[in-house]
Every structure is written in structure tokens, then in C-alpha cells.
């Protein structure tokens, strides 16, 4: 497979399907503290997510870095738990400045290694254009997922306010982060490499 469009579609599908549950949970945790009015910060977070996994993808696909697949698959849900715990500690306060993007990029260095094991066999010849197309597909998919999550979380805010007047965004952040952390813990237990 070497056609850029095929890699673009593959990247988009890879992040938007339920088989990418660990990546979707990570995005949920990253998005949970934000509201639609924070969309610029969210674009920065999603782009940092892409940058983080792009670096690792390039290193692993070109064999500059070799990581044990079982360990990477185990670490991915731990990144979700780490980001969720940060949300639980911070509450509904959106991350100012570069903290959100740095967290996304740092944790996604691990997610990129998970993508790389999936992609390594598909590259034939030059990897630059297919890798760019795959990353662009992931970026477009992430923007679609982030938009859907923002709408879902806004709906959750409204539902929580109706059920319990006076409930603020903190309840949404706590609910989404705790739920994602528990789900990620179950995934981590399944993937324990020892």
C-alpha cells in the first residue's frame, strides 16, 4: 500500500472507529476540561497529540527506535489513567498556556508507538509521503472526534444541570475522567505483559 489517499483514509478510520477505543478514551480525557468556547486550545491539544505520535511513528517505522509491542500496548491505557488523574486533581479548570498540549504530546509519544507496530508492514519504499498522509488522516479524524466529544460533553453539562440545578462543569470533568480511567484500568489489566 503506497497511495497517499489510502493512508489518509487509514489514518482517519484508525482514530474514529471503536477499535481505537484506547485513543478515543485518551481524547475524551484530554477534551473533558474544555468547553466549545475553548476550541482554539483544543485545536492546539489535538495538534500536539498528532505531533507526539508523529515523532514516535517516524522513529519506529524507520527502525530508529524499537519498542516491545506488549509493553507499548500496556502503557497506552496508563497514559489515559495519568491524564484522567490530572483532570481529577485539577477539576474543571481548563489548562492554560502550553500545559494541555504538552501533556497530549508527551503521552502520545507512547500512542505513536502503538500506531507504528500497526503500520510498519504497510510501508513500501519511501515512508515520508505515506506517513504524512496517515498523520493528516489522524489529525482530521481527531478534529471530528474532538468536535463530537465537545457536543456530547456540552449535552452532559445540560443534563447534569437539569438533574441537579447548580451543577457546574466540574461534575462533567469528574464523571468523564473517572469513567475513562476505570475503563482504561480494565484495558491495562487485560494487556498486562507479565
Task: Give the topology string: H per helix, E per strand.
Answer: HHHHHHH
Percent of residues in β-strands: under 5%
- Envelope shape: globular
Unreliable segments (pLDDT under 50, ≥5 consecutive)?
A: none
Helix content: over 70%
What's the total number of strands?
0
**How many domain units?**
1
**Terminal-residue CA separation:** 34 Å
Estimated structural class = mainly alpha
Mean pLDDT: 83
Number of helices: 7
Radius of gyration: 17 Å
- Main sheet characteristics: none
What features would you describe in this structure?
There is one protein chain. This protein is mainly alpha-helical and 194 residues long. It has one domain (4-190). Helices cover 76% and strands 0% of the residues. The protein has seven helices and no strands. The chain starts with a helix and ends with a helix.
Keywords:
single chain; 194 residues; mainly alpha; 7 helices; globular
Describe the secondary structure blueprint for this structure.
Blueprint lengths: L3 H13 L4 H11 L7 H23 L7 H22 L8 H21 L8 H36 L5 H22 L4
Helix pairs in contact: 1-6, 2-4, 2-6, 2-7, 3-5, 3-6, 4-5, 4-7, 6-7
Q: Can you describe this structure in just a few lines?
A:
The chain is mainly α.
Amino acid at each position: 500500500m503506497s497511495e497517499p489517499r489510502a493512508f489518509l483514509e487509514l489514518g482517519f478510520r484508525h482514530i474514529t472507529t471503536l477499535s481505537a477505543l484506547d485513543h478515543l478514551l485518551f481524547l475524551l480525557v484530554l477534551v473533558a476540561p474544555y468547553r466549545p468556547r475553548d476550541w482554539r486550545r483544543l485545536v492546539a491539544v489535538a495538534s500536539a497529540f498528532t505531533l507526539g505520535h508523529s515523532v514516535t511513528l517516524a522513529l519506529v517505522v524507520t527502525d530508529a527506535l524499537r519498542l516491545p509491542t506488549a509493553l507499548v500496548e500496556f502503557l497506552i491505557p496508563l497514559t489515559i489513567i495519568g491524564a484522567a488523574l490530572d483532570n481529577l486533581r485539577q477539576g474543571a479548570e481548563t489548562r492554560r498556556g502550553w500545559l494541555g498540549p504538552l501533556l497530549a504530546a508527551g503521552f502520545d509519544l507512547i500512542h505513536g508507538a502503538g500506531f507504528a507496530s500497526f503500520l510498519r508492514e504497510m510501508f513500501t519504499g519511501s515512508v515520508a509521503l505515506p506517513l504524512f498522509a496517515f498523520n493528516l488522516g489522524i489529525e482530521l479524524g481527531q478534529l471530528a472526534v474532538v468536535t463530537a466529544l465537545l457536543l456530547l460533553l456540552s449535552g452532559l453539562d445540560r443534563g447534569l444541570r437539569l438533574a441537579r440545578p447548580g451543577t457546574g462543569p466540574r461534575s462533567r470533568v469528574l464523571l468523564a475522567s473517572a469513567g475513562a480511567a476505570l475503563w482504561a484500568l480494565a484495558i491495562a489489566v487485560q494487556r498486562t505483559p507479565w
